[in-house]
Amino acid sequence: MPVDYGEDFKPPPRYKNGHYSTFIPYLFGKKPKVDYTRERIETSDGDFLDLDFSRSGSKKLAVLCHGLEGSSRSGYVILFADSLKQQGWDILAINYRSCSGEMNRTLQMYNSGMTQDLHTSISYAEQEYDDIGLYGFSLGGNIVLKYGGEGIYNISPKIRAIVAISTPVDLYNASIELLKWDSKLYQWNFLLSLSYKIFRKKRQYPQGIQLRKLLKCTTLYKFDEYYTAPMFGYKDAEDYYNQNASLQWLDKINIPTIILNAKDDPFLGPKCYPVELVEQLENVHLLIPEHGGHVGFAYGRNDRSWMINKVNAFVNKQLEKSKT
Prior knowledge:
This protein has 324 residues and is α/β, with parallel strands linked by helices. It has helices spanning 18-28, 75-86, 115-125, 139-149, 171-177, 184-204, 220-231, 237-244, 275-278, 305-323, and strands spanning 37-42, 48-54, 60-65, 90-95, 131-137, 159-165, 257-260, 284-287. The protein has two domains: 13-169 and 249-323, Rossmann fold (3-Layer(aba) Sandwich), CATH 3.40.50; 171-244, no CATH class.
C-alpha cells in the first residue's frame, strides 16, 4: 500500500520535539475514567492472565495490548478504551503476566513476542462478539503484528483489523536506538520496574534467579541478555530480538492492518519504518507523520484526537467492508 506521511498532523511547535511529545502526555495527560471488571483465566502452563473488561452489551470487542511494563491502566490504554466505549465497543484490556498488580506464578513473565497469551485471551472472549479489533501499543504493537502474520494459530475470522502504534517492528534496531544518550531516562524507568520484578521472582524461585546479574543491567539490551533471553530459551538478546521482531511477518498478514510510527519517535530506529516493504503489501498500511513521539501524537497535553481518529477511522472502514 502507498505510505501515508501524515501531512495533516500539524502540532504546535513545542510538540514537534519527539521527547516533549512523548513525556508531556505520559506525565500530565488527562486519564478518562473507565470502569473495568477483572476476570482471571488459567493458562495451559499453570499460570494465569488478568483480563480487564468494560462491557455494555456490544457485539464489537476492542482488544487492547499495552507496552513494556504497562498495564490496562496505562494512560494510552485508558485513552483508547474511553474513545472506543463512546463508539459502542466493548473493551478487553489485557494485562501481561506480572503486569496486573499481582506477580504471575511461573518463572517466565512476558516478552515482546508472546503471542500465545494474546491468543488465549481472544479465544476466551470471542464467543460473545461478531467483530474484533486488535490494538497494540509499542511492545504490544509488535505482539499484535506478529500474531497476525506468524501463522501458528487458528486466528478468529471475527478479527476485522489490526492497529499497531509506535511499534518497534525491528526489535534489535530499536534496542540500538535506545542506547543513545538522550534515551537514557526511558531505559532507567523501565529498568527500575523490571529490576523490582526480578527481586520478586527471586523470592518465588530462589534457585532460578541470579541477582548479581542485575549489576550488569545498565541498559534494556543487557537486561534482555541476562534475564529475558535465558528465561525463554533464547541464545542471547540478539537471538531473542531476531526471532520475535514482527517485521519478518508483515508480508504474511492477511487482515487489514495499520502501523502508526512517528519519525521522531525516540524508541524507534530507521528499520522500524519499512516503507519499501509496505509499498508492496496489500493488507498493511504505514502511517509516518513527521512528529508525534512515542505513543504521543499530541496537539496539546490533553488533545490526542488526531491519533485516535486516524486509527479508529481505519478500523471502522474495515468493519463496513466486512458487512458488504
